[in-house]
Amino acid sequence: MTKITDVAVGVLRRGMQEFLLTSRPPGKVYPGHWEFPGGKFEPGEDADAALRRELHEELGITVGDTTPWRVEEMRYPHGTVRLHFLVVREWQGEFHCREGQRMAWQTLPASVWPVLPGTLPVLRWLAQEQGFEGATHREQPPAPPVWLDRVAFDERGLVPAIAQEVGSNDVLMMAWMNREALLETWRRGQAVYWSRSRQRLWHKGEESGHTQTVHDIRLDCDQDVVLLKVTQHGHDGVGVACHTGRHSCFYLQLDGEDWQAVEPVLCDPERIYK
Question: What mean pLDDT is reported for the chain?
């Protein structure tokens, strides 16, 4: 007998046409494929309870009323899933991609690529609801913008990226970007870096909530260093860029023959990374 895994799926709607898609994070089946957010039932949960828990864990939001919509079974090479689709129109809290995934509000035809097979029926249902005719999603990857080819990535495919605070002009941090990270930063308007330790895209603030809104992207004269002009977000209105809980990662100053910390800790690191 084939085992069926029950999955709660949220169809988050804004108005009549917009809906939310998220990408599957690295380390999971079909990484990078776009889908409606959700996850597996835990023991004792129904679709509503599972969806509420999953959306809080994955996106940091608290869901209001949900409306059961449809149930669909999908067979994948790794197993069969029963997808319980629920429509969500009300939620509270700011969206934070807590698992390294991406998110994008979409209208038909969906512009993100690639799309998970389990997403396709929902796109068809939305098309029927809206009277939309034609392809519901992109079937080929989009061509990268021309400007991306002008960046001189090193032999590892990386370029250093400096984040500078708008207004104060404080240098907050330096990290690395590959082509996808720079492209995602441009698309999202939020800083996305390449984590060399995790070997994956790192949406700044995905764990801490200390995201960076990007206002301007610049390239130096040699075209091998990127500068981001950002607003640094944090807890309780305190902008914290450094994992030590400081405003800037550049908090050590050479004083004589040793380095001295010259910036205070604004937020307990244990509070940041619970």
Answer: 93
